[in-house]
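pasting Reverse transcriptase domain-containing protein for the record, 149 residues
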Amino acid sequence: MIKSTNGETPFSLTYGTEAVILVEIGMPTLRTAEVDMIKNNEDLEINLDLLEEKREQAAIQEARSKAKMEKYYNAKVRSTSFRPGDFVYQNNKASHAEDGGKLRPKWEGPYEVTEALGRGAYKLRDCNGNTLPPTWNVCNLKKCYMHGM
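structre below
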């Protein structure tokens, strides 16, 4: 069974050949019944010689697959940034608010952005003028459109 995006099993990348399961050894199958041990040993040596190349090809395929996923993700993601003076709501999970059950509000605020610290970090101030600790994850904020734009 192939378990990764490179088309190889972890066993074949480690040992250079596919695994033979115990059931195949106990019950004769086409794979185990017609085995020529001398030719089998020669094939195993060839597979071990080609193992490094096989691993390199798997690494190239893995990198290609990851680049494709990254390109897809980057095409779909929207960048969000806030400026000082913007009003935002903060996710309750981010602020570690008391758990009020499933009926509690998911967002709290509004908070005013007082400073953009860079790389998605912001300083916030509540309506009483108290400064909150910096918020480092922009995913935990959403724009508040009721308090000015």
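The radius of gyration is 29 Å.
DSSP finds six helices and four strands in the chain.
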